[in-house]
Write a structure and sequence with these properties.
With 430 residues, the protein is of the alpha/beta class. Helix content is 17%, strand content 15%. It contains 9 helices and 13 strands. It has a 7-stranded mixed β-sheet. A 6-stranded mixed β-sheet has the order 7-8-9-10-11-12, covered by helices on one side. Strand 9 and strand 10 (319-322) form a beta hairpin.
């Protein structure tokens, strides 16, 4: 339900309420106020004209008792019969404004443009970061890894490496290398997302499945997109394998990190900004979009760089949304409003347990399905599971839960691309 619809229903219900009885001669005893969420926008006034306090004091005349209401007539048999045409919702008392049109897409920024950014992006957080007490609780409970008896499920994790599909200028194909690392063929370009080909990353156990695509089997890489600077998404040893002229598309504030490592084609963007790359099939557009997450790489750089996802638009208009790392929240609907017609959404379904600490930053499988619906995407492509065991859920649990949640929506089973690591899928042309 949209905000305007909720407002209209609230106004209809307010108008249907009977008028308030006259106020007593003395105001009632004050009661403690409970926290109430403020209304989304202008609504009915909190007090009606006849709710002003009654006069008090020796000269105040006592109020006259209200006249008894007239006896209602006895209902007829027709009135007692069940109605078949009653409205399901209260009638609207105000016209509903049309949904605002999406704003025009921003003009692409120049590639490699030097930028100046704020000192940090803490104001972009959509939830507070865990404090000392939360971290102490995690250390005390020790519940950030699966229970040992569940580790036998590692043998069941789907791993099906195979040759990547042939890709021409009109091909839009995905190959899952594992975690949030994808090989995307779009408009004749080969694009890597959050490439992590390392066996182990800082602070985590080693991979539980091999990389789905051998590095030597990759085509020439035309661009890399990074969602944020956490070690399981920004892997310096993997990036060092690339030629230093490879275009890197980064969140705001991360360009200096890449330039210090010798990369020469570096572009960092704010939310809702974009760049375009020439391709054999035309022009491929890359838009940096919000996510519910955060950034940190050292003890002293919390939120010093931005985080987000990417919308890739092929020359023929087909679109992918790569979410990177994110919790569930309002940004998905806003992305859908600005980028209608998303064909496939690459969304995380793992690293979500325990929920009390991970909910703001990692979607669980049910939230990923809901986010796919919010995005208006036709296809859901799960990721961010089956590679590194970063939290306490059982290794196979994300796959079982996302399949159950997808089935509950009634949407076609073939639109859930629950790929094995190393597997590929081609998105049909429009």
């Amino acid at each position: 339900m949209t905000e305007q619809t909720e407002r209209s229903v609230a106004e209809a219900r307010a108008s249907a309420q009977p008028p308030a009885p006259p106020a007593p001669s003395a105001p009632p005893a004050e009661t403690p106020a409970l926290p109430v969420e403020p209304p989304a926008s202008s609504a009915a006034p909190s007090t009606l004209p006849d709710e002003s306090p009654a006069p008090s004091g020796p000269s105040a005349a006592p109020p006259s008792p209200p006249a008894p209401p007239p006896e209602p007539p006895a209902p007829s048999a027709e009135a007692l019969a069940p109605s078949t045409d009653l409205p399901l919702t209260p009638p609207r008392t105000a016209p509903v404004r049309p949904h605002p049109a999406p704003p025009p897409l921003t003009e692409p920024r120049p590639l490699g443009e030097p930028r100046t950014w704020p000192r940090d992006f803490t104001d972009r957080l959509t939830a507070p970061l865990p404090g000392v007490r939360a971290l102490a609780r995690i250390a005390r409970e020790g519940k950030l890894r699966p229970v040992p008896e569940s580790l036998r499920e590692i043998q069941e994790l789907p791993f099906e490496p195979g040759p990547m599909p042939q890709a021409g200028p009109t091909t839009l194909a995905l190959t899952w290398a594992g975690h949030a690392s994808w090989v995307i063929r779009i408009g004749g370009l080969t694009v890597l997302t959050d490439p992590v080909w390392s066996r182990k990353i800082l602070g985590t156990p080693p991979r539980v499945t091999p990389v789905g695509v051998r590095w030597e089997d990759l085509p020439s890489v035309d661009a890399v997109v990074i969602s944020h600077n956490h070690y399981d998404h920004l892997d310096a040893p993997t990036l060092k394998r690339l030629p230093r002229h490879t275009p890197l598309l980064l969140p705001a504030g991360l360009a200096p990190w890449a330039r210090r490592r010798g990369f020469t084609q570096v572009t960092d963007l704010d939310w809702w900004e974009a760049v375009e790359l020439p391709a054999p099939g035309g022009t491929v557009r890359f838009d940096f979009v919000p996510a519910h997450h955060w950034s940190k790489r050292t003890l002293f750089d919390t939120c010093r760089t931005l985080w987000g996802g990417w919308v890739l638009t092929a020359p023929d208009g087909r679109r992918l949304h790569f979410a990177g790392d994110t919790g569930y929240g309002h940004w998905f609907e806003e992305i859908a409003r600005r980028y209608p017609g998303i064909d496939a959404a690459l969304l995380p379904i793992g690293a979500y347990d325990p929920r009390w600490i991970l909910r703001p930053v990692h979607t669980d499988p049910e939230e990923a399905v809901r986010a796919c619906q919010d995005l208006g995407a036709r296809v859901l492509v799960p990721m961010h599971w089956s590679t590194f065991l970063l939290s306490a859920e059982r290794p196979m649990e994300p796959l079982h839960r996302v399949r159950t949640a997808w089935t509950a929506t009634g949407r076609p089973r073939e639109d859930l691309w629950d790929l094995a690591v190393g597997a590929s899928r081609v998105l049909p042309e429009r």
